[in-house]
Structures are given as C-alpha cells and as structure tokens.
Amino acid sequence: MLNELANLHQKCFPHKPWSADDFADLKKSGCEIIASQNGFIVWRAVADEAELITIGVAPDARRTGIAAAMMGIMEGELKKSGVKSVFLEVAENNAPARKLYEQNGYVQVGVRPKYYDGIDAIMMKKDL
Ligand SMILES: CC(C)(COP(=O)(O)OP(=O)(O)OC[C@H]1O[C@@H](n2cnc3c(N)ncnc32)[C@H](O)[C@@H]1OP(=O)(O)O)[C@@H](O)C(=O)NCCC(=O)NCCS
Q1: pLDDT band at 1 (very low <50, low <70, confident <90, very high)
Q2: Quick check: 91 and 113 in contact, CB under 8 A?
Q3: b/e map of 96-110 (b: 16 or more CB within 10 Å)?
Q4: Which of 10, 11, 71, 99 is the best mutation target for the ligand 1 pocket, counting ligand atoms within 8 Å of the beta carbon and taking the most?
Q5: Which CATH number fits the domain that encloses residue 46?
Q6: Structurally, how many domains does the chain consist of?
C-alpha cells in the first residue's frame, strides 16, 4: 500500500517524490493518511490544532472533487476529536492548491519568504 502511495505521490510531486519509507515515517510520527487509487491526504493533529501536511490527486483525476472530498473527510475526523483549527502552507505560485484551499474556507494568516526554493510559502488557517 505504501509503495502505491509513493507512486501516486511521484505523479503529483514529480520534482520531490516521497518514498514508501517516508510515508512509513510519517505514520510512525503520528500522521493520519487517507489514500485511494487517485488521491491522498496527510495531516497531523496535536491538541486542538492540526496541520494539513500534504494533499495530491492523480493528474488524470483532477477537477472531479476528490481533493475537496478528502479535505471534508479530514475535517470531519478532526472535529470529532475536538480539533479547533487547521493550518497549512502552500507555495505562492501553486494556483490550483490556493484556489482549492480558499474555496474550502482557508484564509491567509502569514507568509514565509522564499520558503520553497525561492518561492514564498503562504500560511493559511481554517477554524473548524
Ligand atoms: C491541488 C490539487 C490537490 C487539487 O485536486 P483536485 O481533486 O483537482 O481538486 P478538486 O476537484 O477537489 O477542486 C476543488 C476546487 O479547487 C479549485 N481548483 C482545483 N484545481 C484547480 C485548478 N487547476 N485551477 C483553478 N482552481 C482549481 C476549484 O475551486 C475547484 O472547484 P471547481 O472544480 O468546482 O471549480 C491537485 O491539483 C494536485 O494534486 N496538485 C498537485 C499537488 C499539489 O500541489 N498539492 C498541494 C500542495 S500544497
């Protein structure tokens, strides 16, 4: 399963793919992972805050609502366990992801200049 996840991650992030071992380490560190044939989402909750660590959908399955659905599942799980807010970071030039997050109620709360190889990271938050 983790090998399939690594293959899917490679399709979504060809310039910085994560290995099956990377995903195993994330699980060991307390991350939650939901994955299907076409998409994955990874988050970590600590006390009443959570971080959306990554999300990806296979290129040929995009714009069918998979990412929004996975975020909805994540948020449902977080609410059940008492989490009050979710944070994430997204590259300033990643227009599809920024639109996805804005559409789902995330608002900008800060900027980390030049965080991703010279590209600013936009920090976003959603109160659940
Ligand atoms: C960002 C990503 C996860 C979106 O996945 P998706 O399943 O295509 O997204 P959805 O179909 O759920 O889209 C939900 C909304 O997000 C916005 N959106 C998603 N992709 C978009 C695009 N290419 N352009 C503009 N808006 C987009 C739209 O508002 C969309 O609603 P609509 O289709 O009704 O207009 C996907 O493009 C991806 O895997 N990208 C590469 C990995 C990545 O950058 N991950 C995020 C790292 S921070």
Answers
A1: confident
A2: no
A3: ebbebbeeeebeeee
A4: 99
A5: 3.40.630.30
A6: 1
